[in-house]
Amino acid sequence: MKWLCLICLVLIIGCTSDDPCEDSARSPLRIGFYYQGVDEQPAQQAIIDSLSVFPLDRPDTLIYNNAYGVSRIELPPDPGSDQCLFVLVFPRATDTLMLQYERILSLVSAECGFRMDFQLQEVTISRHAADNIHISEPMISPQADEHIQIFVPRPAAF
Amino acid sequence: MSIFRFLFPVLLLFSSLYSRAESDSLFVPGIRLGLDISGALRYALEPELIMAEASIDYEFRPHWFAALEGGMLRSNIQGEQFAYEASGQFLRLGVDYNLLKRAGSEQGDLVVLSIRYGLARLDHQAPYLVIHDPIWGDYSSSLPMASHGAHWLEIGGGLRTRIWQNLMIGWNIRARIMLSQRQDMEMDPWAIAGYGKNTGPFRVMLHYSLYYQIPLSF
Q1: Is pTM beyond 0.80 here?
Q2: Which of A66, A112, A122, B2 is the most buried (most CB within 10 A)?
């Protein structure tokens, strides 16, 4: 019994967890592209041949530049504002994505500092290339794999 | 609803153990005072977070201990990019059940199952902070002092053994399930007194404590 108690004293030193800043100090908006399901079939993951993305008011800041074969993207919401707009340039049309959210600060660790999380309130897309948009997880923090689904037409109709 | 579904088998287990304990005789109640020393160990590894706690428990029936735990949290981080200050207090109330047979218990050895309800209050502020963003540029802000509250449940177990006369040492591991937090929409607390790092609704923490048993004789 005494040994069990003392062994645990050693184990407790190993029970501290590290927070790698790379993954935990940023909260990107994760978007998945899908083809709308037909005849009660589930939606299928879409692959966009070419995609460029930039903030509406910063056209020189390309977050994606003619990225090939894209099915998922990550975009950074503006930590200094309660809304931001991105331009998504698809092969044959361009859409504007608007995000509205509440901002929540959280301290990641003494080493990594603060991170801004975002609670999505509303998302809209101009629907030139995209058919529809859906919020699958409104809390934008590093944990979720996908926050928004954008539905696009199948290639034959694109 | 899911919390009750989780709690029901635990309460059922405790009630069945309780009915077995009632048959013991020659029962001498005792009070134990405890001091959590794992906070000091954590402070050595993470000096920006000070957590301290003490406990008192009373064996009100053979093998059954009513337990009250309380403590504090202090945090003060001053960096180039941010400063964060927090202070809080907590209370936990619950029961322990000793699984060991009476002979082991008389020698001071205990193997306990524990259940606790915890509540905490926290005040925190960020006098200054900067978040770097390669797309949008640096974001600078400061957040004034704000209050935060939390309630949670704990289920766990551990060991205690006598090391000298009335002095005991032991550890326990606790699974914590957050029931509710008073949300501050501007800033989440980094850590909650008595709960630990505020990284999610479920946490597991290990505690290591020294206990002094006050001998009672009626």
Answers
A1: no
A2: A112
